[in-house]
Amino acid sequence: MVENQLRPNKITDSRIFNIFNQISKEDFLKSEFQDIAYSDVDISVIGNRGYLKNLHIAQLIQYAKIKKEDKVLHIGGLTGYVTLILSKFSNCLIVVENDEHLLKQLKEKIIKFQLTNVEIINHDLTLGYKEKSPYDLIFIDCPIDNFSNKFLNQLNQSQGRLIM
After folding, report:
1. Separation CA 98–CA 96 (nearest Å)
2. Is 33 in contact with 25 (CB distance < 8 Å)?
């Protein structure tokens, strides 16, 4: 996948290559989707929410220019795949998820992968999480209805970035 999808499409950050080679996406998918984990398709997880194509995830991460000292808000943790990736790049990761079934899976993955820099919040996806702001990066990889300036108000005013 790295050689066929990422490198030819101008992903140049070696950290991204390393992470994508280390993490098995199929570990975060239902069994019926595991055989297409690295296909060039978006994968539905619940309703209209799911995982983007691997290339698109890599592009968002590269464009985000995450620094190790960054405090990141991840909107829509799903089953934890992108959460795990973001946790490897950042210092502190706050993950907002509002689906009880997904929250359970997300918590299990956090424990399984021993992620000590991740905090999971059961909260409305459309509101972000003001209580822990400001954030250096807000990373949204799920559909958000009624997007508002609430997200922008939670960014670090000097260097905050919004990726969606």
Report:
1. 7
2. no
